[in-house]
Specification:
14 helices, about 30% helix, 4-stranded parallel sheet, about 425 residues, alpha/beta
Length: about 425
């Protein structure tokens, strides 16, 4: 029993099994073998004392940019998965906007091989919907699915051609896979830098109107209704988009959506207050206080299914330039959990059960991957959270190569304590094992 692990005395949260109580767990051979009260530890057994801590199914980030292949100077699979482990994530799904794009089974297989060799957590490739992400010709999604792709997206841009999107949705129904679309009318948002409105005028920057997002959300929902396929909408940021999604769900369409931590916490005013800090430049842009409040309501009422980081690491050279020329994106894997706890759980906007649902159970269900529950016999992917640990955000200590965060210096309460993947502890008490 020397390989057995006992997690003792934690508050176990499981949205699928509807468990919220103080319990012990035994892990053996990568599986959860026993859940009970007051399990006695044995001499040869490894023990993690989880008293006062939250034990939940391993967190799954279904929207990560690992940059490999092609942009390893920004991030690679090794550094990105270390960042994920430090952030409490046991699995991440990586987007296909690499170079070359992940648009064939060879690239999928290569990502999985590197992840198997160098990765600290599970990596699930997302394949491109179209060849070269060019929006003109469908990629070989069936071959990528066989190779290990879990979903399909042209992220970084939408599937621009509506007929191509229709064909993709029809095709993916044959193997029950999901389209993850990036809702942005590229013509309407072209050269935009921040949210369109008063702040963009004050800053003298071209704005990106909320309609750029809402037009594509509306189009995608209509095509989902036509095909009866599966649609997941990435990084929703506006009140209008939420209203469209809420209506689609009420009509019984298979539509899900995600929101990022930064869109739940920051508004466009932060760009102004920080004096053109390029770390506040994201796509979609930070929106208004009304939009943020709508996102929070949608998070608590079930309209939003997932919190995903949209982890977008960049080299300093990509951000240390004028705002107009800076790259979009935030390095988010290592700040997501503290932000969610400090800004949403502690204030009571969501509870621990809802956090586990939107950051573990729902991503597992949408992607069709293991995890999301702590029931006996299930895979031992587990995140342990210390709800009282206080930390200041300091990107100098990130495991990610990307130090681009607008949260530098923020003092947050709540942090990942342990990350356990397939029964193995990969992060414990703030250190990689």
């Amino acid at each position: 029993m020397s390989n057995d692990l006992l997690i003792k005395g934690g508050r176990v949260i499981d949205p699928i099994a509807k468990i919220d109580e103080k319990l012990d767990l035994i892990i053996s051979d990568g599986k959860i073998t026993k859940i009970a009260d007051n399990i006695e530890d044995q001499d040869a057994m490894q023990v993690i004392d989880a008293d006062g801590k939250i034990v939940m199914p391993g967190l799954i980030d279904m929207h990560t940019h690992l940059r490999e292949p092609g942009y390893e100077y920004k991030e690679d699979i090794q550094s990105g998965t270390k960042a994920a482990a430090m952030g409490g994530f046991t699995a991440i799904a990586c987007m296909p906007n690499t170079e070359p794009p992940c648009d064939n089974d060879s690239v999928v297989s290569n990502i999985l091989e590197i992840a198997q060799k160098d990765g600290s957590v599970r990596v699930y490739p997302i394949g491109a919907v179209t060849k070269g992400r060019a929006g003109k010709q469908l990629s070989e999604m069936g071959e990528m699915k066989k190779a290990g792709a879990v979903a399909f997206s042209d992220d970084g841009s939408p599937v621009a051609n509506a007929e191509i999107l229709r064909c993709a949705m029809e095709y993916l129904k044959s193997f029950d896979a999901t389209i993850i679309d990036h809702p942005e009318d590229m013509a309407l948002s072209e050269n935009g830098q921040v949210n369109y409105g008063l702040i963009s005028t004050m800053l003298g920057l071209k704005g990106i109107p909320r309609e750029a997002e809402e037009i594509i959300v509306a189009r995608d929902i209509l095509i989902t209704n036509l095909t009866k396929g599966r649609l997941h909408l990435a990084h929703i940021s506006t009140k209008g988009a939420l209203n469209l999604i809420r209506q689609a769900k009420s009509n019984g369409l298979n539509v899900t959506c995600e929101v990022t931590p930064h869109h739940l916490v920051l508004t466009e005013d932060y760009v102004w207050k920080t004096g053109y800090d390029t770390n506040t430049k994201v796509n979609p842009p930070l929106r208004t206080q009304e939009d943020v409040q709508s996102l929070r309501v949608a998070l608590s009422d079930g309209t939003i299914d997932v919190i995903a980081t949209d982890h977008a690491p960049h080299h300093l050279d990509d951000k240390w330039v004028e705002f107009d020329y800076a790259a979009f994106g935030i390095s988010g894997l290592e700040t997501a959990v503290p932000l969610i706890i400090d800004k949403l759980v502690i204030p009571g906007i969501i509870d621990w059960m809802r956090m586990a649902e939107i950051m573990s159970s729902n991503p597992a269900k949408i992607l069709g991957v293991p995890g999301g529950t702590l029931q006996e016999g299930c895979v031992a992917d587990i995140t342990i959270i210390d709800p009282e640990r206080e930390r200041s955000v300091d990107p100098r200590f990130f495991m990610s190569k990307g130090q681009n965060t607008p949260f530098t210096g923020w003092r947050l309460t709540g942090a990942p304590y342990a990350t356990i993947v397939n029964g193995k502890t990969v992060m414990l008490d703030g250190r990689l094992v």
